[in-house]
Design goal:
There is one protein chain. By secondary structure, this protein is of the alpha+beta class. The protein has 4 domains: 67 residues, Roll (Ubiquitin-like (UB roll)), CATH 3.10.20.30; 173 residues, Threonyl-tRNA Synthetase, Chain A, domain 2; 220 residues, 2-Layer Sandwich (BirA Bifunctional Protein, domain 2); 93 residues, Anticodon-binding domain (Rossmann fold, 3-Layer(aba) Sandwich), CATH 3.40.50. 36% of the residues lie in helices and 27% in strands. The chain is built from 21 helices and 35 strands. The strands form 9 sheets. An 8-stranded mixed beta sheet has the order 18-22-23-30-27-26-24-25, sandwiched between helices. The radius of gyration is 31 Å and the shape is globular. The structure holds one RNA strand of 76 nucleotides.
RNA sequence: GCUGAUGUAGCUCAGUCGGUAGAGCACUUCCUUGGUAAGGAAGAGGUCAUCGGUUCAAGUCCGAUCAUCAGCUCCA
């Protein structure tokens, strides 16, 4: 086809608003954007043609529905940050010649690039690299795509670029691909499917955040690389907003708030990863435990208690010991007078104890389901670098239950466990919850117990229950536990990191290992199925995430101090004390502030300590026998009679709003 | 566990070239008795994470350990 013919042919381009425009064939994305508006052309980063993102410079040769991709969309951010990682690599190459590049993707909040370099990167280097990136942006370098055969690309990276990492990707990951694409920007070239932003000049603001190490291809037996993280924006203002968001997240950090509000502490004298609940934190935990106990009582759960340690044989039998011996505290070894040795494990999970309770009596099919429940404290020796306040600890308490049921009851029981978890999350205001069906990885059979048939059945049951409950889930291959698939409820913390809280797990393996049985209607022995479930997951982790979620502004029913009585002057102290007593009698956690400070000061301090209700008392209140209520973060709510206030607060507490 | 960073008063942080430790807030006492986010004054508060080394002299330089932070890896 000659150029001339191309010019003559017209194509119909459908825009997102449904309008159709005609363009000569060969029109590029940027030209379409320019025809719509100057601002859009300026913001345009890439083009989406029939749902597929492509470079802005790609000529359109057929009718298509298109969309101009800008930074506002998730695809736009992805492309922008991916391109930024290339620009960072170019900057690093210019500053530190000889550096080689591994993987450099965009991530949820920015990008990183894994670098192999003789130079050991330091904090100061990041500032230099940032400057260089902005300099490259000012050069307004065009980013150009080139397609070529895999062989030619291998040759290019072997000779011109001398980059063994890209060669390895081409020879292994891409071995069945014939044509690959390269992106050139001045002297720097990267292997990449793209698309990319048209020019380095789109990048206006850059912040390189940290340096860490990674393994080439995520394999701990391969070489270490230096991973540099960063984030970039098409304007300075957006970077500023991003930094402000980070600072806000820092203020919400449960480790910071936990110390400020006196909720919990960690001490090297006790041991790292072993949180200690302070009185105020213990109130929150206690309220949550009481709440769940009550819900479970309504749902037919039977509370039990089991010891904190167990004979190691128990865990060998369950299979936990061989599967997870590296993440357990070493066994306690005990020798009796005759030299006989016994070993005990700090319990890493509660299930084996519960299974023994099940099998301590003969069970009839009429008895099932049996739902044993316990707030069971477990100890796991997590790697030191993993520890993180309450959300990743070495000693923590699971709201653990094991439901023993007949196969015909299983899906119903999974559904009701999901229902309970949803109720708990709903009550605590977690709306942004992701649900993952955690399935096994068939390629890694050694990681799991049980037969293929059992796994197929269990995964089918889990999926059926999730579908019946109308859950919007995604599948996580390889995320199952060794004994069965799970439904995991995942919530983000203030910094956007994801944590698994609630979980519902199906288990056909333990009933075999512990030879659990019930007598069926046919008079024969049958195998029950076990469901492991924990709506909170771990009290520590849940409360850690809850602190960040609420920024320490707990709902009234959970607040460690629900109200503080603030007398304005000494002449009303006596009345204030009687108000405090009335609130105490009403079951409200209340304090009285009789310091000789001005009311403004008392209010400020109550606000900062996030007490939900301030009860302000002066002459006027004393004369009328009333109180003034001021709400945390809201302000004055007017006067109430003492009994009316108690009533109001009690109602709010019982409704858990 | 790995890579990097950090560790000074209860908290947030200064501390220059190595020369006997500083601020604000909080705390204690006194004055002040007030109306919805900081009244005033004075005082007390430190084995500079721990251990070792270099030096006439170490918060400061070097090493180890512990803890914390970010990420990696792992995660019942």
């Amino acid at each position: 086809m000659s150029d001339n013919q191309e010019q003559l042919a017209a194509i119909a381009v459908t825009l997102p608003d449904g309008s159709v425009r005609s363009f000569p064939s060969g029109t590029t994305g940027i030209e379409v954007a320019q025809s719509i508006g100057r601002k859009l052309a300026q913001d345009a980063l890439a083009l989406k043609v029939n749902g597929k993102t492509v470079d802005l410079g790609l000529p359109l040769s057929a009718d298509a529905s298109i969309e101009i991709v800008t930074f506002d969309s998730p695809e736009g951010k992805d492309i922008f940050w991916h391109s930024s990682s290339h620009i960072m690599a170019q900057a690093i190459e210019e500053l530190f010649p000889g550096s080689r590049f591994g993987a450099g993707p965009s991530i949820e909040q920015g990008f990183y690039y894994d670098v192999a370099s003789m130079h050991r990167f330091r904090e100061e280097d990041l500032r230099l690299i940032e400057q260089k990136m902005l300099e490259i942006s000012k050069r307004d370098t065009k980013i150009q795509r080139e397609e070529l055969s895999r062989e030619a690309a291998i040759e290019f990276f072997k000779t011109t670029r001398q980059d063994p990492y890209k060669v390895e990707i081409l020879e292994e990951t891409l071995k069945s691909v014939e044509t690959v694409s390269l992106y050139h920007q001045e002297g720097f070239t990267d292997l990449c499917t793209g698309p990319h932003i048209p020019s380095t000049s789109k990048l206006k603001a850059v912040l390189l955040t940290n340096i860490s190490s990674s393994y080439w291809r995520g394999d701990s037996s391969r070489e270490n690389m230096q991973r540099i993280y960063g984030i970039t924006f098409p304007s300075e203002k957006m970077l500023k907003e991003h930094v402000e968001r980070l600072e806000e997240a820092k203020r919400r950090d449960h480790r910071k708030l936990g110390a400020e509000l006196g909720l919990f502490m960690l001490s090297p004298e006790v041991g790292s990863g072993l949180p200690i609940w302070l009185p105020k934190g213990a109130i929150i935990r206690n309220e949550l435990e009481s709440f769940l106990k009550e819900e479970q009582r309504k749902r037919g759960y039977l509370p039990v208690y089991t010891p904190h340690i167990g004979n190691i044989e128990l865990y060998k039998r369950s299979g936990h010991y061989p599967y997870y011996s590296d993440s357990q505290f070493p066994p306690l070894t005990y020798h009796d007078e005759e030299g006989k040795q016994e070993q005990y494990l700090l319990k890493p999970m509660n299930c084996p104890h519960h299974h023994l309770i099940y099998s301590s009596a003969m069970r009839s099919y009429r008895d099932l389901p049996i739902r044993l429940t316990e707030f069971g404290t477990v100890y796991r020796h997590e790697q030191s670098g993993e520890l993180n306040g309450l959300v990743r600890a070495r000693g923590f308490t699971q709201d653990d239950s094991h439901i023993y049921c007949r196969p015909d009851q299983l899906v119903d029981e999974i559904c009701s466990a999901i229902g309970l978890t949803q109720f708990v999350f709903g009550t605590l205001g977690f709306s942004d919850v992701q649900t993952r069906l955690s399935m096994h990885d068939p390629a890694n059979q050694a990681k799991y117990g049980g037969t293929a048939e059992v796994w197929a059945q269990a995964e089918k049951d889990v999926k059926e229950a999730a579908d019946r409950m109308g859950i919007d889930y995604f599948i996580g291959i390889g995320e199952a536990s060794f004994y069965g698939p799970k439904i995991d409820f995942i919530v983000r913390d203030a910094l956007g990191r994801k944590w698994q809280l609630g979980t519902v797990q199906v288990d056909y393996v333990m009933p075999e290992r512990f030879d659990l049985t019930y007598i069926g209607s046919d008079g024969q022995k049958h195998r029950p199925v076990v469901i492991h479930r924990a709506p909170f997951g771990s009290m520590e982790r849940f409360i850690g995430v809850l602190i960040e979620h609420t920024a320490g502004n707990f709902p009234l029913w959970l607040a460690p101090v629900q109200a503080v009585v603030l007398p304005i002057a000494e002449d009303v102290h006596e009345y204030a004390a009687s108000v405090r007593q009335a609130l105490l009698d009403g079951g409200i956690r209340v304090e009285l502030d009789t310091r000789s400070e001005k009311i403004g000061r008392k209010i400020r301090e109550a606000e900062l300590s996030k007490v939900p209700c301030m009860i302000i008392i002066g002459q006027k209140e004393q004369e009328s026998g009333e109180v003034s209520l001021r709400r945390h973060r809201i302000g004055d709510e007017g006067r109430f009679s003492v009994s009316g206030l108690v009533e109001k607060l009690r109602k709010e507490i019982s409704e858990k709003t």
